[in-house]
Amino acid sequence: MENNAFADIVGKEYKCLDKGFVRLVDVMGDDNSIVQAARVSYGKGTKSLREDRSLIRYLMRHSHTSPFEMVELKFHVKLPIFVARQWIRHRTANVNEYSGRYSEMRDEFYLPEPMQIRSQSSDNKQGRSQDELPKNVVDEILQKMEDLQKNSYSDYLFFLENDLARELARINLPLSTYTEWYWKIDLHNLFHFLKLRLDEHAQYEIRVYAETIADILKQILPLSYEAFEDYELDTANFNKNELKVLREIIDVEKFNSIDLSEYGFSKSEGKEFKEKFEKFIIRNKE
Ligand SMILES: Cc1cc2nc3c(=O)[nH]c(=O)nc-3n(C[C@H](O)[C@H](O)[C@H](O)COP(=O)(O)OP(=O)(O)OC[C@H]3O[C@@H](n4cnc5c(N)ncnc54)[C@H](O)[C@@H]3O)c2cc1C
Question: What value does the mean pLDDT of the chain take?
Fold first, then answer.
């Protein structure tokens, strides 16, 4: 891979949470590999017509996803077990995890920052609120978490000293215990992972890892990441009723007078936007 950013990034540990990290181990392909694969399907004739950037953007906004599968990324990740449980649900990756049956578990546990010790959210049953708990309560909670981690590890060592098999000795260790794995995934499925795990509804702790991976991608796959941001990440879907409301309030005349190039639209992007506007806003306007 000829991307200079790659040489700076590969092998580097990007710290996540208190003791975790993400490390890019290897990459197969780059933005060019996507373009190259896509051109197979469009034939030689189109090669000079599209710039690489506009081809990548075209593929992304038309959900022509298979060229993005040509790039493969392998990461080494150190993460608490409760984060790993969420992460492993993304089935389109290849994983090899540290074995607590084969090796001794290390004395490493995630302890949240005091500012992350928040109350239960009342509107999101799966999340924490922005409300802080009283300082004395935060201190007590953190102390109890730390005590439990220390006690469970000390019991773990006792079990090992008494010759209990490692596969059983580990079973009372908490979900905050750090584990490690190698994780390999193609870029299309990595974008899917990021879309779900960068979202504000994802748990803060897995979001930290997703943000780190996103920062890496921005540097090594700048065109693809930009297209992902523009057409997947920073977008919204409107359902049928929501569109009805938008039709009521959108000023069609004003839309028609706007110069889309001032908003960063290329010619073809502007044309597609106008067609979408015509289809979903004007044609159905009562
Ligand atoms: C905010 C949030 C909250 C969540 N809460 C819960 C929860 O409470 N409980 C819970 O169990 N999970 C929960 N999840 C996990 C979630 O349901 C998904 O399992 C996880 O996000 C992985 O998504 P995925 O299946 O699309 O991804 P991947 O497994 O990477 O799959 C990618 C795509 O491939 C296809 N695919 C892959 N495997 C199969 C298959 N076997 N059959 C059919 N299609 C397949 C699907 O189209 C899928 O979208 C939550 C996820 C998020 C982001």
Answer: 92
pLDDT tens by residue, 156-179: 999 999 999 999 999 999 999 999
Are the CB atoms for 183 and 88 separated by under 8 Å? no
User: Which atom of ligand 1 sits closest to the CA of residue 92?
Assistant: 30
d(CA 189, CA 194): 9
Percent of the chain with pLDDT over 70: 95
146 or 48: whose pLDDT is higher? 146
* Closest approach atom of ligand 1 to CA 203: 1
**Ligand 1 atom nearest 202 alpha carbon:** 1
Angle between helices 204-220 and 187-197 in degrees, nearest 10: 140
Q: Is 32 in the pocket of ligand 1 (CB under 6 A)?
A: no
Q: Is the minimum distance from the CB of 125 to ligand 1 under 6 angstroms?
A: no
pTM more than 0.90: yes
Inform me whether the pLDDT recorded for 47 exceeds 60.
no
- Catalytic residue list contains 101: no
Please identify which of the residues 61, 128, 197, 283 carries the catalytic annotation.
197
Counting ligand 1 atoms within 8 A of each CB, the residue from 82, 87, 89 with the most, and so the one to mutate, is: 89
- Give yes or no for residue 89 CB within 6 A of ligand 1: yes
What gap in Å lies between CA 143 and CA 148, rounded to an integer?
Answer: 9
